[in-house]
Each structure stands twice: as C-alpha cells, then as structure tokens.
Specification:
Blueprint (H helix, E strand, L loop, with lengths): L1 E3 L8 H33 L3 H29 L1 H21 L3 H29 L3 H32 L4 H4 L1 H15 L3 E3 L7 H24 L4 H22 L14 H18 L1 H11 L5 H7 L1 H17 L5 H25 L2 H27 L7 H38 L8 H10 L2 H4 L5 H43 L2
Antiparallel strand pairs: 1-2
Length: 505
Amino acid sequence: MTTLSKSERAVNPLLVMLTASTGCALTVLDTNVAAIILPTIAREFRASFADIEWVISTYVLCFASLLLPAGAIADRFGRRRVYLIGIATFTVASLLCGLAPSASALYSARALQGISAAFLLAPALAIIGHSFHDPEARNRAWAIWGSIMGLTMVIAPIIGGVIASALGWRWAFYINVPICALLGVAVVIFVNESKDSAARKLDPVGIIFFAAFMFGLTWGMINGQAVGWGSSKALAGFIGGGIALSVFIVGERAQSRPMLDLGLFSNPRFLGAVWAMFAYAASAQVMASMLPLFLQNGLGRSAFQAGFAMLPFAMAMLVFPHIGRILERRISSVGILTAGLALVAIGNGITAWGAHTLIWPEVMVGMIILGSGGGLLNGETQKAIMSVVPRERSGMASGISTTSRFSGILLGFAMLSGILATRVRTWINASGCGTNCQDPAGFADSIVAGDLPSALAGLEGPARGVAIQYARQAFSIGFSAALLTAAGLALTSSILVYVLMRRAK
C-alpha cells in the first residue's frame, strides 16, 4: 500500500513526469556520451584497452547490480527522498569523473556514478508509476517517457562529439553538475513524497551475491582479452562469478519474500520475454557504446564526426518503437520480438561486412537495420515482460526487466570488447607488422585502446601513413568479428524466444 506525506500538494502531473524523466534520461545520456569520448580518454591517459573497458563496465556493473535494491529502498524510505540523494551523489560522482587524474581514478569515480544512477532511475520510475493512476493517463505518460528516452539516445552521441571536440572530454562529466542542480530544485518544487508501507525488506545476501556474480563475469571477460582467456585472473573471475550465482540462487529460494522471485522464470513466456530483453541489450543497445569506437578507431572519424555518424542508428532506434505500436495491431508480441531480433542479426551482419571492407555506405545501411530491429524491441520487450505476470507482481517484474536490460549491456560490452581485442591481436600476430611497427604486442594494445599516437610513435613519412591504414584495418577486422558474434546471439535468441513464447501461448 502506498502512503503519501502529510504535506501532499496539488502538482501538475506533466511537470512531475518531466522531472522524473530527466533523471532517467541522465543515466542514458551519461552512458552514451562516455562512449564517444573513450578514444580521447585513452590517448590522454595512455590507457590500456582493459582500462577503457572498465570506464564503461564499472558504471553499468554498479548500475545493473543495484537497480532492484534501489527500488526497494525508494519504496521503503520515500521515493522523493531517495531520488534527491541519487541526484546529489550523481553530482559528486560526475565532478570526481571530470577531475580524475588517471584512468583508474576515472573508473573508480564511474563506479560511484553507477551506484548513484541506480538511485536516480529506480525512484524516478516509481514516481512516474505512482503519479498516474488512470490507465489511459499512465499509458500516455509512459509514451512521453519513451519518447524522451529515445530522443536522449539520438542527441547523446552529438552532445558527446561536440563536448569532446570543443571543450574536452572532462566536460562530458562536468556538464552534469548544473543539470543535477536544476533537477534537484525541480524535485523539491514539483514532486510529493510517497512510500509503500508494504515494501519488501532489503535482501543483503541477494544484493551482494548478484553483484559478485556480475563482477566475476565482467572481470573474467576483461582480463581474458588482456592477459589470456586461460589466465588465472580470467578463470578466477569466471569461477568466482559461477559460485556467486549459485549462492544467490540458493539464497533467493530460501526466502519467503526474495529480492528476485525465481518462480517467475518457470513461466516460459516470462522467460522468453526476459531473454528477449537481455539479447536486445547485448546485441543491439550495446552498440550505442561499441559503434563510436569503430567510427573513430576503424574509420578514422573525429569524436565530433562520430557523434553525427551515429544518427542513422539512433534515429532508427527512435522511430521504430512507434512502428512497432502500429504493427502490434496485426502481429502478436512474439512475432514482433522474433522479427526484431532477426533484424538485429541482419543489421549486425551487414555492419560487420561494411566494417571488414571499410565501406561506409554498407556500414550505414547495417546501422539503420540494426537500429530498426532495436527500436522494435525497445518498445516491445518491456510490455511483453509486464503482460505475463500478475498485476501485484508488476513492481518486481519491472525491476527484473530493467536489470536484464543493463545486465545485457554490461555483459554484451565485456564479451564483444573481448572478442574485438582478441581478434585484433591475433590478426596482427598472424599478418606481422613488417615496417609498420617495432613492437607488435604494444602496437596491437594501442590500436585496441584507440591510442593511435602511441601506436605510431617513432614512425615518420610514408611509413606513418601506411601504419595508420594498417591500424584502422586491424581494428575494423576485430570489430567485424565482434559484430558477427552479436549477429549470432541475436539470431539464436530470435529462435529461442519464438520457441519459448509460442509453446506456452
């Protein structure tokens, strides 16, 4: 049961929705802007590719791991209060990111930013859900929310490119400070406090071991590409993650009111819908972080150019949720999910071919198809998950949906980045540097990280030009392998989702 504060005020629901949606948009904006500035960060810090991966991964890891408990904390202690705490912490974390003197300091600050992002998104979603009771008004509010999030995906790469080229990468984080200050004022003015008197208790065991599971897999994949897939570091991550997952499952089954009700997964339709969300995030939405790396390191675009070059993908992601709503009048949910994943597979495959041949028109066509499939899934996956659970479990189902989305982004980014890096190093070792470099291992590491100046150190004249083309070809071949993996994941998932959801219809 939701309770209100004694000082309940009459506030325009639209202003409440816009205030909450801004916090949600900040979490997406920060992820996608950071993707554009990664090569710039690598060059300034002379960072390894593992360091660059952690800049994205620590943020998404903490974000994904804490979404479920953040929702429970907001329900129990007050959504407005927790939202304000999330805004304040996000402000401090953004300032620390901008001031970071090294790559390790940056991804440590990014961990704090990911934690605070969970305490932005979870209460913001709860505030929207609490503010609109009439079904028609609630649907309209969520439609506006979806449009804001889609528009954020479109403008984020452009903002990142403009900031990186005009102000420097640190301003990608500094810009959050005034935005958060204004958002905090808006929350105080427009948002009423609300709580859920029947909110579930916190689950420390579940929180710790779910986070440990995610961290273990991420640690294994990042260190696998850096020091070897059979190395003690990589194996420790995979084994530790597996043990943490086992403990998490046992712990959740032993509780009467767990953080995650594993019984929901006994429904094949729910399982299929959740897997569709995970696969969409791991093979399509993750490309918002992966494609800018290729556009800069493979095609040689500047950060500014890469931001605008992301428009074909971003615009398709914005438009196709609306097309999905038209299609659902004639096609079932399972049909849209299956078709969306198939389109993602095709788009990744075409983009992989364009990356391999370094032909921009083919890359652009692939990005449009990839974004189109992602757009269909972005609108349909959440609805598919929510439609197969009882209304009284909608809060937990929403948390599972959001967690599976960001878990997919995290694990997809770690997996595909690892494949990219491994393929680049393998290709350079097999083809030989020749006159392109003196140190093949160091040359490969610099290429993967996007630190071209380090890769070209000591080269002058025609040899430098040849080495630049060689470096871009190496990165593009590695990226093509990552895209083909994503295509295989999407295609396999398309079949699996169809089987699970049709069988249980």
